[in-house]
Amino acid sequence: MFSKALRLFALVTLVFTFGCSSDDDSSTGGSIDEVDLIGTWNIVTLVSELPLDVDEDGTASENLHTESDCVVEQLIFNADGTWSGDSEYALEFLTELQGVLCFDNSRNGTWTLDGNALSLVASGVDRTVSISLSADTLSFNLLGGLGFDTTVVIGSYAKQ
User: Fold this and answer.
1) pTM attached to this predicted model
2) Which of 8, 18, 68, 76 is most open to solvent, judged by the fewest CB atoms within 10 Å of its CB?
3) Which domains are seen in the chain, by residue range?
4) Smallest Cα–Cα separation from 158: which of 50, 16, 17, 46?
5) Which residues form the Lipocalin-like domain (predicted)?
6) How many angstroms separate the CA atoms of 30 and 57, rounded?
């Protein structure tokens, strides 16, 4: 059984380090222009391959956005290579996705884009996200590269 300290560590790691990677990006088919990424993005869906009953209504769903009222997040990518993010949720793990926790979280750092690989630095941690960007929708796997590679949670964001 994992201790509370280990659970907290996993949670804090996910909350205070924004980053992920994904093995492929089938919808962009290549390089993404940095100009298209610059701006404010609001989360629209948070979809897990593992259904959860976060709201304890007796029905599990892959759409974690509808399971919890606190799945609110905004990401801002600035032209000067800085980014910031505010969210009201964190994903809870032991060895797999356990639930969604609600609390305020802010973070910021720097970003660079190479093709569809978005590198984010926050709190001294460098992570890479393989993004999909089409029209005004940004999507990526929130968990890849964080040690929870067996679970995929795709966050989709709409440009404000």
Assistant:
1) 0.78
2) 8
3) 4-159 (2.40.128.280)
4) 46
5) 37-140
6) 42
